[in-house]
Amino acid sequence: MPLRIGLVGIGKIARDQHIPALVANPQFELVACASRSAKVKGVDNFIDLESMLAAVPQLDCISICTPPQAHFDAALLALRAGKHVMLEKPPAATVRQIQLLAEEAARRHRTLFQSWHSRYAAAVDRAKEWMHDRTLVRGHISWKEDVQAWHPGQQWIWEPGGFGVFDPGINALSVLTRVLSAEVCVSEATLEFPQNQQAPIAAQLRLRTTKGVDIDAEFDFRQEGEQSWDISLATTTGMLKLSNGGGTLEIDGRTLHGDASLAGEYPRLYQRFAELCTRGESDVDVRPFQLVADAFLVGERVIVAPHHI
């Protein structure tokens, strides 16, 4: 019997990725959606999660796709109603919130899947395998995209708790922490805040592994033309490059796996969620979130030109 799922937050990411992945997966039945301003054909629609849970108590799980500022209250409500929960990234507005949700899920023996969709890009696991027995000597991340194309008219991303350029940047950090065997921390950061916004439009980070290797990261929301989602890792025995957000893998300039699309990420994400729900297990890794929080803690704040959505 498929898992009966409710989707909360019907925005661009829900329509582009979550709904198609759910419709194509026989392990799920999309039963209901909750949104203040949107509806999905063929399912029951509600104005909020509370109404959904009251009207459709037979739901097995909830997938939350709202902006991160709303994740904690929604996830807590769903867990207390006995539902398994999947969170779109970023997982919450604060690190403490996701820790409390993990504790709540454990107490109630429910699944909490604090998802990182870029970890499910086509070439990430192969990159992890290649890096396993190699010695890193340096690394570089270039994660640059046009915010107008990917977040059109979304003011929430510029508000406190909206992450700004770290909304995509955290994807790079989720891939990095998946691929490397050594842990990393933030040693330096510069955050560029538009004069009229409360979240950064660009950031430069110096990360350092526990083995003393530096990794530089550049995040920018002002990219025009070709978008850049690249991670380069130099080792003593070769150079690895992940591009297209983890979809393409090159070793010493030779392409071993190429997938320029993101089409497989969310189907694999929901496959993982189904497995977790069936086993009654959770999957929570806060390391990418902690790195973003630490960048805000140690980063130098620079004011730049205003940005208008």
CATH topology of the largest domain: Dihydrodipicolinate Reductase, domain 2
Count of discrete structural domains: 2
Task: Please tally the helical runs, counting DSSP H or I stretches of 4 or more residues.
Answer: 9
Q: Which sequence of strands runs across the widest sheet?
A: 14-13-12-11-7-10-9-8-15
Short description:
With 309 residues, the protein is α/β, with parallel strands linked by helices.
Task: Describe the protein.
This protein has 309 residues and is α/β, with parallel strands linked by helices. The chain folds into two domains: 112 residues, Rossmann fold; 151 residues, 2-Layer Sandwich (Dihydrodipicolinate Reductase, domain 2), CATH 3.30.360. The protein is 31% helix and 29% strand. It contains nine helices and 15 strands. The strands form two sheets. A nine-stranded mixed β-sheet has the order 14-13-12-11-7-10-9-8-15. A six-stranded parallel β-sheet has the order 3-2-1-4-5-6, with helices on both faces. Helix 3 packs parallel to helix 4 and helix 7 crosses helix 9. The model has no long low-confidence stretch (mean pLDDT 96).
